[in-house]
Amino acid sequence: MESKLNHNVYLTCERYYIYELLIMVAGMLGAYTLNLRGGVFCNAQTANVALMAVELGSGNFTKGLYYLIPISAYTAGSILSEYLPKKVRHIHFLRWDTYLIGFEMIVIFIIGWIPLSYPQQIAQVLINFICSMQYNTFRQAEGIPMATTFVTNHIRQFGIGISELLTKKDVKFLVRAMKHLRMILFFFGGGIFMAVICKIMKERSIWLALLPMVVIFIFLAHADLSNEDIEQKPRGH
Questions:
Q1: Beta strand residue intervals within the chain, DSSP E
Q2: Rounded to an integer, what distance in angstroms lies between the CA atom of residue 223 and that of residue 237?
Q3: Closest CA to 129 of 42, 211, 64, 207
Q4: 219 and 2 Cβ atoms separated by less than 8 Å
């Protein structure tokens, strides 16, 4: 009964399996940039802000100001992912979330064609941009706030859930903690898989991230074109 009720209430773009696939892709992208594209993690910007502060504080102004590029790309992704859904809604064809997945697939395909001999910042900035848009678009999985590009909050929420379970003896906290643990494991699995494939396929290894993205796109497009109201906003927006 609960499963059926959730199916009727939550949009496909809010389902857990969509979020698990998204964060698996994020793990793959993180491993890809760390292994092949400059040894950096492009899915979030905390490290870039910290590195910019260190470089500027050390007097390395050129290196420090460089970090404005990925930070600006991430900011631009957030701005566009807030602005574009309002425009897309008037098209009455597919939901913004579906268009975004299609756009991400195109960018990932392009990155795979960029040789490793080219400046690594090109691929880094592209990944900064799409990760920002994804993080800002997919916000809640079946009513629970979730991040799909990094696991910091999932680790925190898992710890909180276990603490609540021990103090309040309510199994619902264990269920919630396990949902966050699953997100961590999917990210971890995607990272391991990509780390292995990077040694074989080099820059084109990122194309394997398209496999889960295609699955996501099919699920979302099918829902948009069949039984879901594309005017309905996902929770958290």
A1: 140-141, 144-145
A2: 19
A3: 42
A4: no
Q: How many CB atoms are located within 10 Å of the residue 69 CB?
A: 14
20 contacts 138 by C-beta, under 8 angstroms: no
Quote the tokens at residue 133: 């848009």
| 5 touches 189 (CB < 8 A) | no
Residue 231 has pLDDT above 90, yes or no: no
Nearest to 33 by CA among 64, 60, 76, 70: 70
Q: For the purposes of burial, counting CB atoms within 10 Å of the CB of 170, is it exposed (0-12), middle (13-18) or buried (19 or more)?
A: exposed
Categorize the per-residue pLDDT at 152 as very low, low, confident or very high, splitting at 50, 70 and 90. Answer: very high
Nearest to 45 by CA among 128, 153, 110, 159: 128
What's the pTM value of the predicted model, to 2 decimals?
0.93
- For the chain, helix (H) and strand (E) counts, in that order, are 10, 2
DSSP letter string, 53-81? HHHHHTT-HHHHHHTHHHHHHHHHHHHHH
Q: Is 43 helix (H, G, I), strand (E, B) or coil?
A: coil
3-state SS class at 232: coil
Any idea what DSSP says for residue 39? Answer: S
